[in-house]
């Protein structure tokens, strides 16, 4: 199965700054890559699918790029509501697998 | 707006089984697959298995093969996940999640756009 590796494990940023999160796949997953946001005590929430398409009602400050094995989630101008854990997930090859997550903290 | 509502928290003894339910409200499963994803303390997310309720088709991750059974009642839009042979490492929050495309052909091969609130299962003697 595809192994997804996220970096860094923790990202410390200030409100208003830009955050850049990375996700690497052990083999190509084409553009079949999703990003999720998870806040404490809540289920994950889909942010990005197809590597770069925002899910419904996701603000434009969230953007995804990448193809193959290297992917990036960027959050421009971080807001207080954005401090959370972010997971990438590949769904190119069964079974779907997730990265270990990046915690975005103040 | 469709929501997935899961059953409440469970405390189980090692060696026993647990059954978690996931009911769709405000909609039906149609041809979507319902998947089960677990999150153990301090760990990430792990896909366990899933079902397309309309067809009864199931698929399971190798790590859980033989211990997990996913069923569904399409008439009540409720899916179930049963995990047997519980051990302390199974202590986790278990989520049901709907696949994004809902084409009725894939289980565990899609993004997940709708999640239940999670069910905490604690395995302790």
Structure description:
The complex is a heterodimer of chains A (106) and B (125). Chain A has strands at residues 4-7, 10-12, 19-25, 33-38, 45-49, 53-54, 62-67, 70-75, 85-90, 97-98, 102-105. Chain A has 106 residues and is mainly beta. In chain A, the strands form two sheets. In chain A, strands 2, 4, 5, 6, 9, 10 and 11 form a seven-stranded mixed sheet that branches. Chain A has a four-stranded antiparallel sheet with strand order 1-3-8-7, with no helix packed on it. In chain A, a hairpin with a 2-residue loop joins β7 and β8 (70-75). The model of chain A has no long low-confidence stretch (mean pLDDT 96). Chain B has 125 residues and is mainly β. Helix content of chain B is 0%, strand content 50%. Chain B has no helices and eleven strands. Chain B has strands at 3-6, 10-12, 18-25, 34-39, 45-52, 57-60, 68-73, 78-83, 92-99, 112-115, 119-123. In chain B, strands 2, 4, 5, 6, 9, 10 and 11 form a seven-stranded mixed sheet that branches. A four-stranded antiparallel sheet of chain B has the order 1-3-8-7, with no helix packed on it. In chain B, a hairpin with a 4-residue loop joins β5 and β6. Chain B is globular. The mean pLDDT of chain B is 94. The interface between A and B is medium-sized, with 20 and 20 residues.
Quick overview:
The complex is a heterodimer of chains A (106) and B (125). With 106 residues, chain A is mainly β.
Q: Low-confidence spans of chain B: pLDDT under 50, at least 5 residues?
A: none
CA-based gyration radius of chain A: 13 Å
Question: What is the number of helical segments of chain A per DSSP (H or I, 4+ residues)?
Answer: 0
Low-confidence parts of chain A, pLDDT < 50 over ≥5 residues?
A: none
Helicity range of chain B: under 10%
Fill in the keyword field for this structure.
heterodimer; A: 106 residues; 4-stranded antiparallel β-sheet; 11 strands; 0% helix; 48% strand; B: 125 residues; mainly beta
């Amino acid at each position: 199965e595809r192994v997804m590796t996220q970096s860094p494990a923790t990202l410390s940023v200030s409100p208003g700054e830009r955050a850049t999160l990375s996700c690497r796949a052990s083999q190509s997953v084409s553009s079949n890559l999703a990003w999720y946001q998870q806040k404490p005590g809540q289920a994950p929430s889909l942010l990005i699918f197809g590597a770069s398409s925002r899910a419904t009602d996701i603000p434009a400050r969230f953007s995804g790029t990448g193809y193959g094995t290297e992917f990036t989630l960027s959050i421009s101008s971080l807001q207080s509501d954005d401090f959370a854990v972010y997971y990438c997930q590949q769904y190119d090859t069964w079974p779907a697998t997730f990265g270990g997550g990046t915690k975005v903290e103040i | 707006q469709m929501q997935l509502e899961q059953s409440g928290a469970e405390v189980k003894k090692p060696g026993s089984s647990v059954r978690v339910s996931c009911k769709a409200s405000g909609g039906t499963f149609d041809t979507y697959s319902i998947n089960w994803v677990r999150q153990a303390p301090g760990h990430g997310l792990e896909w366990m298995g899933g079902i397309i309720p309309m067809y009864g088709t199931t698929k399971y991750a190798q790590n859980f093969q033989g211990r997990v059974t996913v069923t569904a009642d399409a008439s009540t839009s409720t899916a179930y996940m049963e995990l047997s042979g519980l051990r302390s490492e199974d202590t986790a929050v278990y989520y049901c999640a709907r696949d994004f495309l809902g084409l009725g052909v894939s289980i565990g091969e899609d993004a997940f756009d709708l999640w239940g609130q999670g069910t905490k299962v604690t395995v302790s003697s």
